[in-house]
Amino acid sequence: MKKPLFYLIMVILTLLIGFLIFGNQEHQPLTEQEIQKLSQTFGDKFSEMRKSQQNDQPSSNKINTPEPKVETQNTQAIIGVIYKKQGSTWFIKAKDNQQRINQITEKFKQYFLTNLKFDDNQQPQFDHLPKDAKSGSKSSMRYATFMIDGIEVSVINLPGDQDTFSNVKRWMGQVGLNEKSPISMQFLDDKSTIFVKMPK
């Protein structure tokens, strides 16, 4: 139904009801039941016309809300161990996409947490690692580099008692996490060993 015709009918119905209720004083006033019946009829007619108007709208005017698209993102993740030793702090870390980090989690924990020992000089001993895990890649900051199933593991030693939380926060920034993002931190050996996995 076109809008002008719709509004014209609405005006006529409104005037008709007003006239029946207030317009002719010579006739007997309408009872309350009759007024309610007229109001109900008016309301029903209004609803029918509104529905008809909506159905008559061209399809080009209808708003089609597209279904939200689920985007697959390459979520980055980190797994690491921090060792706070006398005079220095060790950081052992692997970074890759989350699926690959999850795949090496148990092996990483076995190599660098469960079976890793330190000598009397507080130096880590990596003799238990398989030969194919060792890598000759080094940098000025790295003590050593290893490979686990194609994922690089860096070993860094910094002097003194380093601020653990500042370093963990820096790691979070490397994988796009913020301070409210869920991560896992396990404090072991009287809090001198911290196992970190992010996201949780």
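Above is the first protein from milestone M3; the second protein from the same milestone is given next.
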Amino acid sequence: MKFILWIVVGLAAILLLVTLIGLLLPKDHVVTREGHFRQKPEAIWKAITDVDAMPSWREGLKGVKRMPGANGLPAWVEQTSAGDVALETTASDPPRRMVSHIADPKLPFGGTWTYEIAPTAEGATLRITENGFVTNPLFRFLSRFVFGHAATVETYLKSLAKKFGEKPRIGE
């Protein structure tokens, strides 16, 4: 019985330590990744703005539900295995730049994604900058040391490359 008690106390101590470290980490983070594609900017723009088609190519995205947007810009809810995330577009300059943000203040994370598409000699690059925040100290620790702040952006770019039948070429 003492053995089980020591295990419980040890796990509680680890959880407390992880939470304390999370409290010391900054809430805000900025991550930028760039994907290189053999596609024209217009093809990349179509892929990243066609919300209804995203579940067919984005890893981890089960479905989307369109919502009314502000100023004529799209808004939608992404359905993932981790739950629903409401997003809305706040700026759009086809086919060069788009900004979207998480529109649910109840989530323990949030922020914006800025998509910038630039033509290259062999196609185009898509640079995604995440200006994010994580309010929950436990999630902040996990995001920083376990998953990595760039994980979602990198998965997105890998999924986009796969959609185009290309090998992912991602840089910072």
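Note on the second protein: The domain at 2-54+87-171 is CATH 3.30.530.20 (Alpha-D-Glucose-1,6-Bisphosphate; Chain A, domain 4).
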